[in-house]
User: Fold this.
Amino acid sequence: MNLEALASCLSSSACAVTQISTALIIGMLLFMVASGLSLIFGVLGIINFAHGAFYMAGAYIAFFTYQATSSFLLAFLAGALGAGLIGVIFERFIISKVYGKDILMQLLVCYAIILIFDDLVKIIAGPEYKMMGMPDVFALPPLEFAGGFVPAYYVFMIVASLSIGALLWLAIEKTRIGKIIRALAINPQMVGALGINTTLLYAAVFGVGSMLAGIAGSLAAPTRTLTPGMGLSILIESFIVTVIGGMGSIVGALIAALLIGFTRAFGAIGFPLFVDGIMFGMMAVVLIIKPSGLLGREIAR
Amino acid sequence: MTKTTKGISRRRVLKGAGAMAGLAAIGAPHIAGAQAKVIKIGLPTILSGRVAILGTSSRFAVQLAFNQINEAGGINGRKFEVVDRDSKGRPDEAAKVTRDLINNDGCDIIIDGEASSGSFAVHEVVRDLGILCLHTCSETSSLTADPKLFSKNVFRCARQGIHDAVAGGSYAAKIAKEKGLKKWATCSPDYAYGRDNTAEFLQYAKMFEPSIEVVDQLWPKLFAPDYTESITKLMQVKPQAVYSALWGGDLVAFIEQSNLYRLFQNTAYFSGGLGDPPILTAIKNLPQGLNTAYRYNNGFPGSPENTAFCDAYVKVAPHEPTNWAWQNYAASQFIIEALRRTNGNTDSSALAKEISGMTVKKPFGGAGITMRDSDHTIINYPVAWGKTVSKSPWVLDYVDTEWSKIIELEKEWKKEKGYA
Amino acid sequence: MMKAGFLRDLFFAAVVLIVLIVVPFIFTKPSLRDFLIYVMAYGLLAMSLNLLVGLTGLVSFGHAAFFVSGAYMFGLLMQSGRVSIPVAILITVCGTAVLAMVIGAICVRLKEIYFSFITLAFQMFIHSIILTWVSLTGGDQGLRGGIPRPPFFGIDLSSGASLYIFSACIFVACILIMRQVWQSPFGYTLRLIRDNPNRANYLGVDIVRMKLGVFILAGAMASVAGVLLSLFVSGAYPEFGFWTTSGEAIFMIMLGGSQLFVGPIIGAILLRLLEHFVSIYTEYHGLVLGVVILAIVLGLRQGIADYVVDFLQRRREAKAAPAKEAAFVKKRIA
Assistant:
């Protein structure tokens, strides 16, 4: 415990800027993964334990695309769309078969998908460590803000994640299709009775959710190591985020992701030994006081 | 309710019968008697998950060694077969597959390709069953140094933490003296290996250069995907040098993420794990001049044996040999040479007697690697440190540490720990 | 009635025990004995979890927390060299029960998926304590140096055969205890809570207390499973408490069936057989296992044992139905 160091960091602009940007860097990728998880749960009532597998798929697709084309833009798009497409296929042929079933069934299906994806990646890409490397556009010295340093790529990552999050929020809150999706979450029979193709909507929502995981994967690919099984560690953290923020709430996911980001960034300075404990503690406290999470609503079903 | 109970009990009997049939199949020998002359080598290792490359690169090396001897006609007409099994990195699974390899597949010898906790689990099994075993991936010193764990049939053919610490400490002290590096920080994974390795490195670095002062120690989680908060913390602390026990994919991510902050422009970096070809090639922007321990290098030692090993290895594997690969290849050489001396007799104690004190020339040539008689662990393997360059062969300017110095300090360390 | 049921269970238990003990002496391969000990340890874990999942409808994702606590408590007690094996087992079971009480007191107040999450959170917390408290637990390397097995009452567990017989006895005893709970009024109260909590509430059942009771019992039973495994591998490892261990136990329940009492054991046998044979032939066992899971879930949509029970019942009904119809038609004609 070193609160003095924490106080002195907060009072120096260089340290504060660097650590705040660290919090955003950690938080934004978590937000991307967790918002997908949250969206899928909110609308479909499915806890997608296989979400980490889509993150991994996005990262690997981006990696191979970048190797083939050397274009980060194409790699990013391919990773996002590829993961989304796999998500739609998964929804149509597998997860839709267990809608309304026991949660254990859903868990098992997801477990199976994790096992299959990890082995497929090992077969296709091999078990070696893979790193996409920094695209030339971002190969700049870190940018300086008020004495603190933020790498150019991370600035891009934060801006991209925030804009995607904002787009998602606008789409759900302000458009007609968003209204339908919100209605779908509350009363699917009614939506179906209005002549709207709910099957298609479910697949689309699942696809968007997986696409968010794929976006996180392709944003992570230039800075994180790709290995089979890489989806696991991000899955656990994003679960903590969704539980704290509230299942089904995009804004909740953002707030919780930032909470985790700030805990880790400033915890590293002030209380490095307690960071994990605090994260679990926050999750436990939220579950006990308000099980549905900060901004979640009780499940109707 | 009473109605169904009767039905269940009958079904239970049927189920039991079905299960028995399956169990009987497990009990049956897996391979028929005609092939009994084959000498079977069992290889429990990690073939799935994040460190699958440990297992796959080990397996390539073991298969390479025994294929070479099979092509040369085997030993006394007996050929070799390698049976590998995935433990998924779980110690209880490692114990189970090792027992299976011995009891079910009839393996005569075990090469244990498990890391840390798995190797201890395998150790208990081979001690229990009295079979010859060579640990090839575990670097934990206590595995062979602790006399409580000693078994006459069990050896370690892998680098040992304490040797690394002395070699690394003396190298780091020399550089620190030359360049005046006084303020040090560490950044190692938060688990037993990371903590022990870091503590031992610092102990010897400080012993050789007392002016070294540790200003901060960071402990990111093992297998963490992201190190940003550790890197920015290092930037606040501004040490002159950083030691890190990170390894594998974690290290690749750490270096690339540090590059974004240009961390290594003003900070010297010392790493125990960087010098492995799959890591060096995975890093896209390898900074120049990082200090690393030797893990494997095709140009060092510059002997014809090493070149031959690397050439043969890349023909069967998609990458250059890893640290684990040379260790497994050397372990295979110990086994082959021992069998040569016993004329193909696979009795564990006869083989163990031969391996104690044996020296093998492959894969590095020169004076060879020796299996020390007293505690069944190898010595005289390369413990050099070098500096990175941005293209192949990736690490140059290797500086060796005298083995006599390492052994002397190892003796004192054993006394301190109560091992001797 | 209760007594007759108990005697019948006792009889079955004796038969199972005799079969378990005799089989390895008929098929003398040591690997068969290993296999059976594994099935017993993991089967017991799955059975204890099913007290929560199948009987009470509480889907715990963190049951391995008690499995790992059993293994570590027992291992540490034995390594301290102060207690004999039965005493150590007793302390371990009581200690884990206390742990389960503390954790359970918080968890059982939550419903459905939130219960699952918080059990998972506690398990991850315990796992990370084991990893970081290196001086006590040995961290990621586990409890090293083997677990001593000093003889007691003239029984020496250092021989493989006696360790096996000892495990079989403990296993059968635990199954018998769980069977009694399964059939007891307490068991039926739990089923009522699972199927209709509102009604249970109206009937004056203290739901939280009932749930806590079964949570503690299940935790204690899981700790015995941990003891068996740590005795067998002569060590305890943090992986015992990782979420994949809980996942595997859930998988065993699903594979076997949650509504039949012995379903989880059938699941444990099937999963272990599957893993055993698949990993001999391919290193891509995850791929094969995943496909098998998908086939079972999407094909049968329930556990294998549950499916067989349903199937037999349907067939019996189908057989009975035409007969009844025939009789009815006959009557009409007459």
In short: The mean pLDDT of chain A is 89. Chain A touches chain B through 47 residues (CB under 8 Å).
